[in-house]
Write a structure and sequence with these properties.
With about 300 residues, this protein is of the alpha/beta class. It is about 45% helix and about 20% strand. It folds into two domains: about 1-150, HUPs (Rossmann fold, 3-Layer(aba) Sandwich), CATH 3.40.50; about 155-304, HUPs (Rossmann fold), CATH 3.40.50.620. Helix 4 packs parallel to helix 5 (about 130-140) and helix 8 (about 245-260) packs parallel to helix 9.
Amino acid sequence: MFGTKVLLATDGSRESGRAARMAAGLANGLGLELHAVYVASIPSVYALSETAILDPEVRERLHDMAEQDARERLDEEAEKIREAGGKVAGAHPRVGRADAEVVRLAEEMGAGLVVLGSRGFGPLRRAAMGSVSLSVVRHAHCPVLVVRGEKDSLPGRILLALDGSKEAHAAARAATEISRATGSELDLVQVLQSGPLPYPHYYTMDKYEADLGRAEGVSRTFLDKQAKRMESDGVTVAGVRVRTGNPDHEVVKLAEELDAGLIMLGSRGLGGVKRALLGSVSDSVARHAHCPVLVVRGADSASR
């Protein structure tokens, strides 16, 4: 599912330090090569003297300075990872816009997973996820793990959100691999989107509740089947749950109730420019969750 390489995007912050610990743990557990990238931005030429600005080679020198800074930062981060018991197979200094360079490098090296940190705010401020994190989640060709909050290692409780789509099936396979590798328990949830009935409406409340009850029964049967399949693959399924409401809200809320250490869910696997059209549920969960979130694309996304 994750190929052979995991790419850690680091910027030296406390949040990226947590991402590094989780990336190292997953790389060790899944038998993947751990690569690290640091993207430095080119200093503004307007910070230089007028004479320096007029130098025709000034931009090239600024680029070289930024690349050297990225190399030095990567050396520092690689040493921290080694001290924590991890091993960095490759260090990749880059210069430019962070999200674009991370996505580009992930595709070039054929990474099967991108890991990066995001600021961990309180409930009302979690929506302010850094633009770099959100952009990578939206545009990367492969699964992306956004590490936020205080949790940065497994085993722990994994909440897997399923909806019957092929993307959710890919997320289930990824969850099975991670659960087996880390010894983490899985909880499965499916959220039936519902809301207050608009009136006047030809449905009676009794019929609405009866239909909702049948839908919940179908969902529970589906989840029980998934749970049995995963247990036959050596995974411990702690529970299955059917919720009604807004899917993103219910997934985030349940993760907090369970004190989950990781949320996993699928996202539509689109190519090129269309990757920007990320499903709103994945987008919202990645923004608001209290813990790390792993967004998994469909099986055909890489080929696109």
